[in-house]
UniProtKB/TrEMBL annotation:
Superkingdom of source: Bacteria
Protein name per its UniProtKB record: cAMP-binding domain of CRP or a regulatory subunit of cAMP-dependent protein kinases
Pfam families the UniProt entry points to: cNMP_binding (PF00027)
PROSITE patterns according to UniProt: CNMP_BINDING_3
CDD domains named among the record's database cross-references: CAP_ED
UniProt GO molecular function: kinase activity
Length: 224
């Protein structure tokens, strides 16, 4: 993506000599949880994920972001430390905004409005995911995920670990759901794909999750 095409170009153009363009390969860590890191990144292309790894080896997927989004250790801004890793899930190109430059940008109310809108929207999305995990069963959420992300009744996935990351569950927990769906003849599972056999049963099972995720066409919106 060309710099003059990004959402924040008009705000950063006078500081371009202070902002680095950096690249990471797929699988590289942009920052680790134990690093003191105060820069802010803006994604030009590619995808990253933010995850938390416990001392017991459990991985919790916090967020996934792509181009035109900010990423960084924003918890520092709220005097917190969430101890998260930021990792490239594809080849990624980023703007690296030093804290001193970011402090200057905060003086521009229009930039600050965009930054706060984008980051608060992600926080709301993460909060909604956490609510779903507490409100609905894994079976309900998995049925919804299959229906939403399938094409011609076929859902493809990279591997089981990637699915476990999405739902922040163990392989055993996911296999229990898959085996249940197979036994009930809802789905047929192949190596890296799932074929939906009984869409109506999945649709009924996901009913409350669908209602929870229904887009609200309210006229009250941020004007950004």
């Amino acid at each position: 993506m060309k710099l003059d095409h990004i959402h924040i170009y008009e705000y950063i153009q006078e500081y371009l000599n202070e902002i680095a363009v950096i690249n990471y390969k797929k699988g590289q860590y942009i920052t680790r949880s134990d690093e003191t890191f105060t820069e802010v990144f803006f994604i030009l292309s590619g995808n990253v994920k933010v995850e938390c790894l416990t001392e017991y080896g459990k991985v919790f997927l916090v967020d996934e972001l792509s181009e035109n989004e900010f990423v960084g250790k924003f918890s520092y801004m709220y005097e917190q430390s969430l101890l998260c890793d930021i990792k490239a899930t594809s080849d990624v190109c980023l703007l690296k905004i030093h804290k001193d430059t970011f402090n200057k940008l905060q003086g521009n109310s229009d930039f600050l409005k965009v930054f706060l809108f984008k980051t608060s929207k992600r926080i709301y999305y993460m909060y909604k995911k956490l609510m779903m995990k507490n409100l609905f069963s894994l079976e309900e959420m998995f049925a919804f995920h299959l229906l939403k992300n399938s094409e011609n009744d076929r859902f493809e996935f990279k591997n089981i670990s990637a699915l476990c990351d999405i739902f922040s569950i163990s392989r055993k927990g996911l296999y229990n759901v898959l085996n249940t769906f197979v036994k009930k003849n809802y789905i047929k599972k192949d190596k890296n794909s799932i074929t939906i056999i009984d869409k109506k049963q999945l649709f009924d099972l996901a009913m409350h999750v669908r209602a929870f995720n229904r887009i609200n066409d309210s006229k009250i919106k941020f004007n950004i």
